[in-house]
Amino acid sequence: MSTTPAANRKAILVTPEVCIGCRGCQTACKSWNQLPGIPTKNRGSAQNPPDLESNTYNIIRYSELPSENNPVRWLFISRRCMHCDDAGCMKICPAPGALYKTREGAVAFDRDKCIGCRLCVAGCPFDVPRYDKNNKVMKCHLCYDRIAEGLEPACSKACPTGALRFGDRDKLIESARKAGHEKIYGEADLGGLGSIFAFKDAPKIYGYAEKPGIPESVVFWHTVLKPFAVVGLGGAVAAALLHYVIVGPHREEEVQ
Amino acid sequence: MAEMVRKAKTGEIVNHWVLAVSCILLIITGYAFLFQLKQIGALFGGFNAMKAVHNWAGVVFSLSLLATTYSYLSESLHLGPDDREWLRKGGGYLTRDKPVKIPPMGKLNTGQKLYYLAVLLGGIAIAVSGFVIWFWPDGRVIRIVSHLAHNLAFSLFIVAVPVHAYLGSLANPGTFRIMVYGTVPLEFARKKYPKWIEEMKRK
How would DSSP label each residue in A167-221? Predict the structure, then answer.
């Protein structure tokens, strides 16, 4: 199921410190993907809606943290599908073709093939997949329809500051290195993410796990229980056949 | 014709078939989901339709499993010294040359009792986790736990069910007819289920 990394793997590089929190990316995403706008509520934060939704593929998270020289430090972080190379959602999905990898390395979805079981919710390390009213999966697909035609995704196209940059994954990592980022979040995690982050600080400051991973039970299921489904059934049938041939059936008349 | 003794009532025979057919249907569709087997999906008219078959077969299986508690549960919970001895001798199934004298058994032998208890517990686990996956769409942790429970119980079924089917047919000539007619010859029953026959005589 794991695909070989695409030679022309594309990615989005997120640089939170460059983001001004304008949310042009959120708007452009809704516009391109024809997702409805929804009334927002004041919850004491400019972050709206509070998290990803079936009609909101990306959001800007607004974090207020105290810093050394300021009572408040604003952080704006783009949150969206990470387009993992080793994608937990694809691993756990029971419906062929419902979630698939594009040639550019995007994890896209096919609503006709989705059966609405919502197991991808359990497989995703980043709590990304959402379901709409028709019980079909909805999430960022890296604008696979645009990038296949040589365009860039709607969000990065709309970004006025370069906080979201789209391009060849290797080149983006190289340029982030040159800009002084020693570690790039997502460079190697889960086989390499398609959304990579140039963090200045520890990932947890930005709301991301230090070492993201597919839930252990899902890994156990994939590496142990799935092979056992073949070996176990085959073994039980083989044992029965061997018993019949070697020991033979149990005949009451023989037992006295 | 030899004198026959009734071991299974008509309702029990029907319910066992309902349980068996739904279980096999669930296992087949389960494998198709587990390994994304498109060919099996096509047999059901696609994965969306197969999901409906899997879910509703699950409902049938759960109800049928519930009904089995009436037939087999109390007998299966009666485990004694004879059962320990039966297990020590592997039920007499493990040697060819000298037929092993096993302790006298009741209506169900030790293996059947333990199999029933395993299927009941595994069945409860697979049914509850299945219904959670079906009807409880929100909550990431509960889905992770249910997915694991569903697959662990599945691992039990795919090993236990083929062994059960073999032991109830080819391995024990003369027993498969219980699943069809519900009766066995009295002489056969005296040897196979002596404690049960004694018990019936006393009544």
Answer: EEHHHHHHHHHHTT-S--BTSSGGG--SEEE--SS-GGGGT--SS----HHHHHI
Which residues of chain B are within 8 Å of residue A127 when distances are taken between CB atoms? 140
Q: List the structure tokens of A64.
A: 């207020």
Centre a 10 Å sphere on the Cβ of residue A241 and count the other Cβ atoms it contains.
12
SS3 A3: coil
Beta-strand relationship, B183-185 and A164-168: unpaired
Tell me the DSSP string of A92-132: H--STTTEEE-TTS-EEE-TTT-----THHHH-TT---EE-
Whether residue A195 is found in the same domain as residue A238 = no
Cα angle B118-B124-B125, degrees, rounded to a multiple of 5: 90
Number of domains making up chain A: 2
ipTM of the complex: 0.92
Q: Say what the pTM is.
A: 0.92
The answer to whether the CB atoms of A226 and B34 lie below 8 A apart is yes
Q: Are A231 and B152 in contact (CB under 8 A)?
A: no
CB contact under 8 A, A94 and B99: no
Contacts of A96 in chain B (CB under 8 A): 36, 38, 41, 47
Domain count, chain B: 1
Domain membership of residue B6 (yes or no) is: no
pLDDT of residue B147: 97
Structure confidence by residue, pLDDT tens digits, B136-171: 988 899 999 999 999 999 999 999 999 999 999 999
Residue A243 and residue B174: Cβ atoms within 8 Å? no
Which domain does A236 fall in, by range? 215-256
Contact B166 A229 (CB under 8 A): no
For residue B6 the two structure tokens come to: 């009734």
d(CA A33, CA A29): 6
